[in-house]
């Protein structure tokens, strides 16, 4: 990875997570519970960070769960949730993934959530690519970036967090 390919450094990632958490709170302040659904993998890692920050800025209950989607072949196995479906009835759910590339993974995650009688569904992402094949619109975005279909955005969480163009 070259320095010029970095789109977000560690400090910027932290700032974006904090801002997304505040935006989620501003849009869900009337709810007694905020359901945060992380797409397994980096989406869940990002969801955990957002949920942790939400807990510091609101008294609302934060319910965190994972959506298990096979990213390379979403139709290859069932999309599952790590929460009981009945828990979501009448609730607002925020689905989180680190990057929205083609939109395919998010579409399958959303499809699974819509099997429930939820009240509202929002989408949050750290990096939102503007070129995609599926009609996914993120409500809460850390960074919008124009890329070509050949480009790939990679987010690395851990000790040295970074998002870069691969």
Question: Could you report the average pLDDT, rounded to the nearest whole number?
Answer: 91
Q: What form results from the Cα inertia axes?
A: globular
Count of distinct structural domains: 1
CATH topology: Rossmann fold
Summed up, the helix count is: 3
Major β-sheet profile = 6 strands, mixed
Percent in strands: 25-35%
Binned, the helix content reads 25-40%
CATH architecture: 3-Layer(aba) Sandwich
What is this structure's SSE topology?
Blueprint (H helix, E strand, L loop, with lengths): L5 E3 L1 H19 L4 E7 L2 H16 L3 E8 L11 E2 L10 E9 L3 H10 L6 E10 L10 E6 L7 E4 L5 E4 L1
Parallel strand pairs: 2-3, 2-5, 5-6, 6-7
Antiparallel strand pairs: 1-9, 3-4, 8-9
Helix pairs in contact: 1-2
Description:
- It contains three helices and nine strands, in the order E-H-E-H-E-E-E-H-E-E-E-E.
- Helix 1 crosses helix 2 (42-57).
- The model has no long low-confidence stretch (mean pLDDT 91).
- 34% of the residues are buried.
- By secondary structure, the protein is α/β, with parallel strands linked by helices.
- A hairpin with a 5-residue loop joins strand 8 and strand 9.
- The protein has helices at residues 10-28, 42-57, 104-113; strands at 6-8, 33-39, 61-68, 80-81, 92-100, 120-129, 140-145, 153-156, 162-165.
- The strands form two sheets. It has a six-stranded mixed beta sheet with strand order 4-3-2-5-6-7, sandwiched between helices.
- The protein has one domain (3-165): Rossmann fold.
């Amino acid at each position: 990875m070259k320095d010029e390919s970095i789109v977000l450094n560690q400090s910027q990632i932290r700032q974006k997570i904090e801002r997304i958490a505040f935006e989620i709170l501003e849009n869900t302040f009337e709810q007694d519970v905020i359901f945060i659904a992380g797409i397994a993998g980096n989406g869940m890692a990002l969801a955990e960070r957002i949920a942790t920050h939400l807990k510091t800025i609101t008294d609302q209950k934060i319910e965190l769960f994972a959506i298990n989607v096979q990213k390379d072949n979403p139709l290859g196995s069932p999309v599952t949730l790590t929460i009981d479906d009945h828990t979501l009835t009448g609730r607002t759910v925020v689905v989180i993934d680190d990057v929205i590339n083609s939109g395919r993974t998010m579409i399958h995650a959303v499809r699974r959530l819509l099997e429930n009688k939820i009240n509202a569904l929002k989408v949050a992402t750290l990096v939102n690519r503007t070129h995609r094949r599926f009609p996914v619109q993120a409500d809460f975005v850390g960074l919008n970036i124009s890329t070509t279909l050949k480009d790939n955005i990679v987010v690395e969480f851990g000790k040295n967090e970074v998002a870069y163009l691969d």
